[in-house]
Amino acid sequence: MVREQYTTTTEGTHIERPEDQNVYKIGIYGWRKRCLYLFVLLLLIILVVNLALTIWILKVMWFSPTGMGHLQVKKDGLRLEGESEFLFPLYAKEIHSRMDSSLLLQSTQNVTVNARNSEGEVTGRLKVGPKMVEVQSQQFQINSKDGKPLFTADEKEVVVGVDKLRVTGPEGALFEHSVETPLVQADPFQELRLESPTRSLSMDAPRGVHIKAHAGKIEALSQMDIKFHSSDGMLVLDAETVCLPKLVRGTGGPSGSSQRLYEICACPDGKLYLSVAGVGTTCQENSQVCL
Ligand SMILES: *[C@@H]1O[C@H](CO)[C@@H](O)[C@H](O)[C@H]1NC(C)=O
Questions:
Q1: Which of ligand 1's atoms lies nearest the C-alpha of 130?
Q2: Domain residues of the chain, as ranges?
Q3: Distance from the alpha carbon of residue 178 to the mean position of ligand 1, in angstroms
Q4: How does pLDDT run across 190-230, given as a tens digit for each residue?
Q5: Residue bearing the CA closest to ligand 1, atom 10
Q6: Fewer CB within 10 A of the terminal residue: the chain, N end or C end?
Q7: Is residue 275 very low, low, confident or very high in pLDDT (cuts 50, 70, 90)?
Q8: At 45, phi and psi to the nearest 5?
Q9: Cβ(129) – ligand 1 distance below 6 Å
Q10: What is the 3-state secondary structure (H, E, C) of the chain?
Q11: Tens digit of pLDDT for each residue in 227-255?
């Protein structure tokens, strides 16, 4: 604000220039001044509050020269100690456990591992649920340490590649259809039984059936006939003793004979019978059994 006062001078007149009237007054006065002070004060308050808030945030967030709380920024990446929650997907290239500790994936619901192709379709899935473990894939394989397949399952077959398959359940193993194997063998010192409790059992081998009992006997029991058929061969009973203890005894001969010798006679249909031996043959006399 400049206040200037001029007094026009005319010749002969006294020029009056009072000192106080010739002062240039520069400055802020009155309400403007108060406003400015108020403004500066407000700014100061805001600054202090800002500083306090910043310090508070730094303290609350645990800022430190190396990072923020449990989150540390290092040369080779981030390090987060303590529990961390990611409420949405976490994208990572690899997940490792820490040195000398195992890796645990845990959930009260299913834990699923999916493999997807470039179109995003699931091509393989491993699902561990509270009630079952499910693998969905074209082939499931378990390999040994040196890469030998121990168990392989695909749509066509299941292969168990181990040396021995042991079924320990009391019910054994059930196969709906045939079992193909070159050998059926009992455990050492165990009996082996081949059984069909309510139906028949048949053994069929075009090139021959051999039944051997090296240190025991062979017994065949049957309620009905026992038949040995041979189309081209003969029936050989190769033993020092051949007994037919229940062979029928021909009747009509001299009964009560003291001699204990008999001769074996045959009917026309092949049936054998005994006849008390005489000087000549006695078959004819005792042939009534053939009728
Ligand atoms: C877990 O998996 C099973 C089997 O696939 C499924 O039936 C069930 O719905 C799943 N549970 C949840 C919560 O997704």
A1: 1
A2: 1-9+16-80, 236-291
A3: 36
A4: 999 999 999 999 999 999 999 999 999 999 999 999 999 99
A5: 110
A6: C
A7: confident
A8: -65, -45
A9: yes
A10: CCCCCCCCCCCCCCCCCCHHHHCCCCCCCCHHHHHHHHHHHHHHHHHHHHHHHHHHHHHHCCEECCEECCEEEECCEEEECCCCCCCCCCCCCCCCCCCCCCCCCCCCCCEEEEEECCCCCEEEEEEECCCCEEEECCEEEEECCCCCEEEEEECCCEEECCCCCCCCCCCCCCCCCCCCCCCCCCCCCCCCCCCCCCCCCCCCCCCCCCCCCCCCCCCCCCCCCCCCCCCCCCCCCCCCCCCCCCCCECCCCCCCCCCCCEEEEECCCCCEEEEECCCCCCCCCCHHHHC
A11: 999 999 999 988 898 888 888 887 654 55
Distance CA 286, CA 275 (A): 6
Is the shortest distance between the CB of 135 and ligand 1 below 6 Å?
no
Query: Cβ(134) to ligand 1 under 6 A?
Result: yes
The count of C-alpha atoms lying within 13 angstroms of the C-alpha of 267, restricted to the half-sphere facing its C-beta, is 15
Q: What pLDDT digit, counting tens, does each position of 48-84 carry?
A: 999 999 999 999 988 888 888 888 888 888 888 888 8
What pTM does this model have?
Answer: 0.57
Q: Does 257 contact ligand 1 (Cβ within 6 A)?
A: no
